[in-house]
Queue: 2 jobs
Job 1
Amino acid sequence: MNAIVSKENLHIPHLDKQPEMLVCEELRKVYPTPKGDYVVLDDLHLSIKKGEFVSIIGHSGCGKSTLLTMIAGLNNLSGGKIQVDQEPISGAGPDRAVVFQSPSLLPWLTALQNVMIGVKQVFPHASKAEKLDICKYYLDKVGLGNDFDKKATSLSQGMQQRVGIARAFALKPKILLLDEPFGMLDSLTRGELQDVLLEIWQKEKITAVAITHDVDESIFLADRVIMMTSGPYAKIGDELVIPFERPRIRKEVLEHPAYYDYRGYLMDFLNH
Amino acid sequence: MKDKTIKTIKFFGLSFLEPLLRALSGEETQKNLASFIKKTLFPIASIFLFILVWHLGATALFNKEAEARIEKAKTEQGEEAAKAMADCIASGDVSCQPNTLPSPQQVYQAYIALWKDHLQISEKKSDFKEKVADTNAQREEQGLSPITYTGRPSFLDQIGTSLKTVAAGFLLALFIAVPIGIIIGLSDVLRNSFNWLIQILKPVSPVVWLLLVFMIVKTVITDPNMDKSFIISFISVGLCAMWATLVNTSLGVATVDKDYINVSKVLKLSIGKQIFKIILPASFPLIFTGLRITVSVAWMVLIAIELLAQSPGLGSFVWEEFQNGASDSNAKIIVAMFVIGIIGFLLDRIMLTVQNFMTFSKA
C-alpha cells in the first residue's frame, strides 16, 4: 500500500513542464473571538500547476472552505500570500470562477441570463450574438440545451448547479474553484454532475480546485488529492497523486485494481 | 385552458374562485364544491350575519332614542305631547326621527340618494359645458383660461379627488423612501446614524405631519393660484406613509443573500450594476411589502388629513355630513365608511398583484 505514496509517485508526468498557476505561501487565517484569536489555517503551503485538477479533502470545519474563499478573494488573508499566474491576487475576480455549494443563481433571472451576466462582464467587447453563443454553448454542454429561458427557481437543485457550472466555465477563468459543489445533491444526481463537470473540464483543461468531503468524488475528479488536517492550525497533512487515465469513465475507475488502495489511504488519513 | 385560467385568477388574488372553476369543469366535483362553500359561501354568510347584527343593533338604538324622546316630551309637555311625538315617530316624519346609528336599509337608501345626486350633478356639468362652449372658445382665442364648473362636487367626484391625493402621496413616498432606503441600506454606518431619527419620526401622528407641512408650504408657496390645500394634503399623506417603505427598503438592501453578493464580487460588477442587477431585484420582495403597507397607511391617514387640511375628498365629505346633521347624514357617513373600506381593500389587492408580478419566488 505504501507503494502508491512513495515520493517518486508524487509528480504527475504530463504536468511536469507546466508553469505554476496557483501558489499559496505561509497562508494564515485568524478569526478573532471574544476568547482570543481562533487560528483556522496556519503556515499553509500549496502549489498547483496549470491544467491540474486538485481536490482538497478534510473533515467539516477544518478550514478547507476558508482556504477556497481566500483563493477566490472573498475572504481576507491574515498572513502569507496567494499568487495566481505569478501575480498576487487582490480581491475577487472572474479569473477565479467559483461554483458555490448552493447554486447561488439569481432567482429573478433565467438560466441563460444567469450565465449572460458573467459573460457580459468578461467579454464586454464581444457582439451580442457572440455572447449569446458562449452562453448557449456552455448551457448546452451541461445538458440544459432546452432550458435556456426557464427561470432559475423553476429548475431542480441539480439543474441549478448545472447552470452554476456553465456560468463558471463561460467566464473562461484561469482557475475554477469548486466549493463542495455537489454537497447538496442526492448521490445519483451527484454522479451525473461529476460526469458533466469532467466532460467539460476535459475540453477546457482549466486549473481546478475542488473542495469535497466525499472520498470517492475526490479520487474520481482529481489528479491529486490534498488532505487537510483538522483545525485549528489546519495545514496540509498529506497528498496523493491519482494517476488514472483521462478521460475517466466511472466504471473503469471503480474497477481499477489500485482504486481501493487509494480509497483506503484517504479513509485512513481521515479516520486518524 | 382551465389551468391557465386558474393561474390567472390566482395571480390577481381571486383564488377563492378556484374550487368553483374546478368543480364546474367536472374535476372532483364533490370535494371542490365543499371547498367552494368553505372559501366563498361562508365569507358571504359572515357578511349577512354582520348585517343582521347591525340591523338588530340599529333597531335597539332607534327604540331607545325614540323612548327617550317620548319620555322627554311627557315630562316636559305632558301626555298629549308624548302621544303626538309617538305618532310622529311612527309616521316616519323627518322632523322628529331619532338621530342614531342608521340601519342597513337607511344606508342603502343613502347610497341610492348619493348615486342619484351624482347623476344630477353630472348632468348639470355637461349642460354647463355646452352652455359655455362658445364662450370658452372665444376666451381661448383671447388667451384667457376657460370658465370651469364650480358647483358642489358629487360623492363620486370626492372619491376621485381622494384617489388623486393618495396617488400623489404614494408617488412622493415612493420617490423619497426607496432611494433613501437603498442608500441607507448599503452602509452600516448610515443605517446606524439614521436609525434613531427614523424610529422617532415613524410614530408621529398624521395630524402633526399636516401642521408641519402646512408651516413649510405656507412659506414656500406664495402663488395664490396654486391649490395649496391639495399640495399640503398629498405631501402629508406621503410623509406619513413613507416610513414602512423606507424601513423595508433599507432592511431589504442590507440583508441581501450573501451568496448573491459573492457572485457579484466574483464577476467584479461595478457598483451601479451591483445595485441595479443584484441588490435591487434581490430586495424587491421586501420593498414591495413596504409599498403595500405604504398604500394602506396612505389611504387610512388620508381621511384625517383631508378633514383637517380642508381639501376636498372623502375626508371632507364625512366631516361636512357630520356637521350638516340632516336626517340622512349619518347614513351617508356609513356609506362613505364602506366606500373607504372597499377602496382600501382594492388598492391592497392591486398592490399585491403588482408585487406578485415584480418579485421572484424562492424555490
Note: Chain B is about 80% helix and 0% strand.
Job 2
Amino acid sequence: MDNRSSVEIFTEWDIVAARQLGRNEAKNSGFGTVDQARITTAISELARNIYLYAGKGKIEIDRLSTDGMKGMTIIASDEGPGIPDLRKVMEDGFSTSGGLGAGMPGVKRLMDDFKVESEVGKGTIITATKWLR
Amino acid sequence: MNSKMRTVVNEHMDAIIEKWIELMKEEKGERFFHFMPQHLVEKTSREFTALMTSNINEGESALNDERLDDFTEKVIRFGWSIKFVNKAIDNFASVVFEMLEDQEVITEQNLRIFMGVFTGWINPLRESIIEAYAVKWEQTDTLQKVALQELSASLIPVVDKVSIMPLVGTIDTERAKLIMENLLEGVVQQRAEVVLLDITGVPVVDTMVAHHIIQAADAVRLVGAKCMLVGIRPEIAQTIVALGINLSDFTTTSTLRRGMQEALSLTNREIVEVE
C-alpha cells in the first residue's frame, strides 16, 4: 500500500518525528487546523506510550479513501509487555507511570474510531481513525 | 606491482579525472557538477583524486588526517550526500581499474592479485571518509542540542512582581526539567508574585506536556507565587478538553496580553494612558 508511511519509535525524538509526519499527512489530506492538532496529539500520546511502556515500536499512518469517505488511520504497534486490563487503561485517571492517565481515553475522544488489541507478553496494536468531513 | 600501478596512475591522472567527472555528471539528481563554476569543479575533483591516490603514493595507512578533514568539511559544505561521496569513490575506483586494464597493467593472470590491491586501497579510504562524515554529523548534532538548551526556558521579569516564561518548541522530558528548575529559581530570585507561562509557541500539548505544566504550576504555588497559563490557541484548547485534562486549578487566557492584564489586576495595578 503506497498510502502508508511509518516511523520507528526508539527515542523521545522519534515521537516528534512521528507527529511531524502525522501533521503533514493530515494537512495534505485536507484536515483543518483543529483536526490536525487532534491527530497530532493522538499520535503524540500513542508514540509516547510505546516509548514509555514498550521501549520500541512503530507508528504507521494510512491515508484512507473508501466509498467517498476520506480519512486517516494511525496504527501504533509494539512488541512490549501488553496491557493486562484493557478496561482499566480506558478509565480516566488510571496510570501506572505517575502520569495524568488521560492518554488512552483521550486518544479515543480525539479520534473517531478506536480499537485496541493487546496480548500480555506479546504486544499491543492500537488502531485509531479520523474521518474527513 | 604497486609501484607500476602508481606510476601508471600518476601518468594518466588527467585522463582519469576527466573520465571520473564525466561519470559523476551522469549521476541522477546531482547538481554540483552541473551548476558549480568549472574551475571549482576542477579544483575539488583534483583534491578528491589527490586524496584518493594519497595512500598509493605515500604507501599504506599514510592517509593524511588533516587533508581528509579539510576535504570532508568542504564536501559537506558543497552539500554532497554520503551516498554521493560513496558513489564518487566507486566511480573513481572503476575508472582507475579500467584505465589499468587498458594500459595492460592488469591482465587476466594478475587479476586476482589486483583485486586484493584494490580492496586494500579503496576500503580504508571509504572507511575514513565515512568516519569523518559521521564525526562531523555528531558534532553538528551536539552543537544544535546545546544551542537548543540555551534557547530553552528563561524567565523574564517584565514589570515588578510579574515574570514571563515564553515556551517555544517541543517540550521533552529534559526540557520539562529545565523549565521547572528555571521557573522556581527565577521566581525566588526575581521575587515574582505572578508567573505567566506562555505556550503560544508549543506545537502540541499532550498529556505529558500538560502534566509537566501542572507540576510546574504546583511547585510555583509552593514557593508562594501564582502561575498562569497563557497563549492557549483554540485548537489546543479543544485537544486539552478532549484529553480530559483538568486545568481548572489555575487561570488560563488565550493571549499573553490578556494574561498580563490579569496579572496586573492580581497585584492591584493597571495600565493607564497618560493624558
Note: The longest helix of chain B spans residues 111-151.
